[in-house]
Design goal:
By secondary structure, this protein is mostly helical. 98% of the residues lie in helices and 0% in strands.
């Protein structure tokens, strides 16, 4: 009687552990599918992201040049203001 009960308890426990492993494996498979899909999307977006990066760099160069022009204009205006004030 006790031995049969112990076998039943062990069988139940093993079944629960097997179910947990099955759930874990299913979740890992789902995660792999998601990772593969995201990887494909990233590969498709790669050239677009590269092009946008180049455009941003070009924009930054334009901004730097314009900032220098503004700085020179401010200096010139400041110098003229001093002359006018005298």
């Amino acid at each position: 009687m006790l031995f049969e009960h112990l076998i039943e308890v062990k069988a139940t426990r093993l079944e629960q552990e097997k179910d947990q492993y099955d759930v874990g494996i299913r979740k890992l498979e789902e995660a792999n599918v998601t990772i593969d899909r995201l990887h494909e999307e990233l590969e498709k977006l790669g050239p677009e992201l590269e092009a946008k990066g180049v455009a941003v760099e070009a924009g930054m160069l334009v901004l730097e040049r314009e900032a220098k022009d503004v700085e020179e204009t401010q200096r010139a205006v400041g110098a003229e203001a001093i002359l006018v004030a005298e």
